[in-house]
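To illustrate the input format used throughout this study, we show a single complete record. The first block contains the structure-token representation of the backbone; no residue identities are included at this stage. The design step must infer an amino acid for every position from geometry alone.
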């Protein structure tokens, strides 16, 4: 029996596009369901195990097995975000459209037996964020500002670039950053790690607001049904910056 797929209307909203080769990689039904459910969610949506269990009417083992397969395929990544003192401030889940490549091993042993398995102090390992492999070398400028040398002064320069952009927009502007949180600092350190100076970030904002005004000023709904507008955290995450650079909007 053949398949007949109607063409989407021009004004159709609220759909998700996935890559066919990625879909073919996922073998189990639970991993397939979890992947497509999560990739359809907006940024900053909170991933909760109980929500997945309720959504599919399955148990904890079913959900964990599905997430484990997605992690092995390089489609699901848990990232620990730390502040400048090395203290864990939050966890982020990254859902990748394609499998990550060149992933480092979780427990490198350098040929020696690993005695850390039962050590309670090493249960939580800092998993470094992976670079987006779609960005070419020419798109990332080298800079002396690295994640370690990104001081509060440099972080404030990124924030000032955002605030200046909003103030220049007049009435149609997004919220300015009045209080810098640990999450703001984490986003700024990621920019520094990728070699983005505050000047390059300011130039990126000028181009973003000029070329993607509908996306920038658009509104979206949370799971609770509340209507939200974009802000620094939703637009300046490294994931969204990569989407803009790679023309995925």
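Output of the design step:
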């Amino acid at each position: 029996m053949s398949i007949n797929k109607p063409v989407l209307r021009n004004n159709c909203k609220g759909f998700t596009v996935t890559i066919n080769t990625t879909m073919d990689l996922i073998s189990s039904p639970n991993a397939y369901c979890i992947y497509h459910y999560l990739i359809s969610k907006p940024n900053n949506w909170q991933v909760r195990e109980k929500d997945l269990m309720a959504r599919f009417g399955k148990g904890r083992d079913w959900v964990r097995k599905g997430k484990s397969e997605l992690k092995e395929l390089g489609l699901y990544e848990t990232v620990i975000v730390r502040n400048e003192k090395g203290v864990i401030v939050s966890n982020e889940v990254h859902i990748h459209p394609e499998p990550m490549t060149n992933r480092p091993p979780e427990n490198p042993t350098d040929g020696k037996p690993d005695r850390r398995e039962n050590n309670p102090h090493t249960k939580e390992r800092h998993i470094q964020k992976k670079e987006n492999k779609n960005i070419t070398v020419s798109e990332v400028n080298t800079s002396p500002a690295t994640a370690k040398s990104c001081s509060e002064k440099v972080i404030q320069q990124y924030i000032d670039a955002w605030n200046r952009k909003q103030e220049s927009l007049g009435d149609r502007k997004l919220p300015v950053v009045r209080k810098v949180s640990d999450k703001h600092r984490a986003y700024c350190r990621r920019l520094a790690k990728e070699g983005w100076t505050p000047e390059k970030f300011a130039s990126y904002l000028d181009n973003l607001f000029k070329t993607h005004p509908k996306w920038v000023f658009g509104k979206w709904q949370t799971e609770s049904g509340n209507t939200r507008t974009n802000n620094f955290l939703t637009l300046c995450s490294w994931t969204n910056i990569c989407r803009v650079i790679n023309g995925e909007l």
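Structural context for interpreting the output: The beta strands are 76-82, 88-95, 219-221, 227-229. The first strand starts at residue 76 and ends at 82.
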